[in-house]
Amino acid sequence: MTKRGIMSLVENPGIFMGAAADYNVAQTAILGIPMDYTVSFRPGTRMGPQGIRNVSTGIEEYSLYQDRDLADYSYFDCGDLSLPFGNVERSLEIIEDASSMLLEDGKFPIFLGGEHLVSFPLIKPFARKYPELRVVHFDAHADLRRDYLGEGNSHSTVMRKVAELLGPKRVYQFGIRSGTKEEFVFAQEFTHLTVEKVLEPLQAALPGLAGVPIYVTLDIDVVDPAFAPGTGTQEPGGCTSREIISAIQALSVLNVVGFDLVEVSPATDSSERTALLAAKITREAILGFTGKNMPVIF
Predict the structure, then answer these.
(1) What is the CB neighbour count within 10 angstroms for residue 268?
(2) CATH superfamily of 3-289
(3) If DSSP codes are grouped into helix, strand and coil, which group holds residue 276?
């Protein structure tokens, strides 16, 4: 594959925090997934990728936490996928194709959503490539429903679909503080679910995740709405922005093979602080997941 392959699926090129590397030589590729067709409360997350890009110029390229600088990394912003508005099935097919292309091209992918359902087609090619894949999931919501109002494809069902794809106990969930009773019963058998807490249980889980490929999916509503109000389904009682940044940095010791950040909704983010947090998390992910064996400063 070449740049032409993935760019044939893209509507408009993007520019995240000065990304200027040539696709063919870039180690990391950023791709926006502007879909929010199945959200259960407030729509608007399809504007999330562009909202994150728009504020990314306000974030320094240097991370004092990791003592690393984006200027020393090669990353390309593909822009946003062109998706047929309202057509869930076809959109999921396109998203899966795009994820496969980036994997085939040997890129470390960073996907910016968009609603959380997009994570399922993004993860499917990783599951095919990495039989031992584990998924680390940060979220306020369990997302383990079988269906939402009779619809199996929903941002409320995404992690159940992932858990069923990977098999029992291959999904690790952190920060969960909302869901139906049935979801928590399902989690007891099929996932590792931690209620409310994020950093401490993640650190305890790290030894058991060593040596296997890890895909990370982060719903921005894992963060308390006091810090991240710009999301469609706000859930009080979440972690701080500092804690989620620390969690991403903690994951840098693992073999992370892919990352998505979803559910940023500019429509409810008048101060843009949610998009700014997402941009900072994305910076930390590029620096932490594509550069190994360097000290992390907390």
Answers:
(1) 17
(2) Ureohydrolase domain (3.40.800.10)
(3) helix
